[in-house]
Amino acid sequence: MSEGTGPLVGEDGVARCPWGGGPAMIAYHDTEWGVPLHGEDAWFERLSLEGFQAGLSWRTILDKRQRFREVFHGFVVDEVAAMTDADLELLMADPGIVRNRAKVLATRGNARATQALRERGGLGALLASYAPEETPRPAVVEEVPTVSEESTALSKALRRLGFSFVGPTTMYALMEASGLVDTHLLGCHRRGVRHAT
């Protein structure tokens, strides 16, 4: 095995990616991360939360996810697209979310860009079309990519379509979280989950 940080065996005897520690992160790692998404709203939520995560830890977003869902109407695309400037301004006083004005505005803008994509097959189909033919096979954390040729191309395509907070690294994180690539470490009990659902 390569040198570096490989899967860790928890108190329950199960080998996991080392970031999957603590009850909330274990639950997320074991039940959500890398599982394929279905439906426009699910893809839009993932895109939005990954955008909010840029520059922050995923744990921060996970801890605030329920409140994000409440204030952004469950990430129903049409409802977010219809939010007014006054609606968004109220969010800037809500400590339950990440109060970054540019990211809040981008969420509505991205909802509107998602609506426009419906005539071209939809957001999910576009994102999935950038999945690579081969997925990485990292044995240790140090071998996990943070960007790829495909995530860079996806980022450029989304920006051309009016999306924001969709940089190459953010899009690679989305690809990991939604099972478009599998970066569970070799030896992690969830390796291969994208093919098992």
UniProtKB/TrEMBL annotation:
**Which BP terms does GO give this entry?**
base-excision repair
Instruction: Kindly give the Pfam families that the UniProt entry links to this protein.
Output: Adenine_glyco
Which InterPro entries is this protein grouped with? Adenine_glyco (IPR005019), DNA-3mA_glycosylase (IPR052891), DNA_glycosylase (IPR011257)
Which keywords does UniProt give here? Metal-binding, Zinc
Entry binding sites for Zn(2+): C17, H29, H184, C188
Q: Where is the signal peptide?
A: none
- Gene Ontology MF terms in the entry: DNA-3-methyladenine glycosylase activity; metal ion binding
What's the protein called, per UniProt? 3-methyladenine DNA glycosylase
Organism name: Marmoricola endophyticus
